[in-house]
Amino acid sequence: QVQLVESGGGLVQAGGSLRLSCAFSGRTFSSYVMGWFRQVPGTEREPVAAISWSGSRTYYHDSVKGRFTISRDNAKNTVYLQMNSLKPEDTAVYYCAASTRVGFTATREGYGYWGQGTQVTVSS
């Protein structure tokens, strides 16, 4: 059974940075496309970024391009989300997820394993 544990969320001022980490266990990490999603109460959970098995392919939501960077360390079974130039509209619960579909995907429906989420709050 795959387990995902996020860390690194918190409160930061606009313009600041945070790095989220997600520790993966239970299966072979390098076999999974990994993604970060976020959700504001009352809205759909949306994809933020995704990364392929080797890290050679990535996806970013338009709203975070140039500010966020997804990366992974297959030796440490960990995926990261470096978030720079944070804006109040980035405030959300951020979820790490592992894809259960064949091929690269960034859609929520393609992910079958989810972490518990970590709160990111950006003050103006």
List keywords for this structure.
50% strand, globular, four-stranded antiparallel beta sheet, 0% helix, mainly beta, seven-stranded mixed beta sheet
Folded structure, characterized:
With 124 residues, this protein is mainly β. The chain contains no helices and eleven strands. The chain has strands at residues 3-7, 10-13, 18-25, 34-39, 46-51, 58-60, 68-73, 78-83, 92-99, 111-114, 118-123. The strands form two sheets. Strands 2, 4, 5, 6, 9, 10 and 11 form a seven-stranded mixed β-sheet that branches. A four-stranded antiparallel β-sheet has the order 1-3-8-7, with no helix packed on it. Strand 5 (46-51) and strand 6 form a beta hairpin. The mean pLDDT is 97.
Distance between the termini: 40 Å
Please mark out the parts with pLDDT under 50 across 5 or more consecutive residues, or reply none: none
- Strand percentage lies at over 45%
Number of separate strands: 11
Radius of gyration: 13 Å
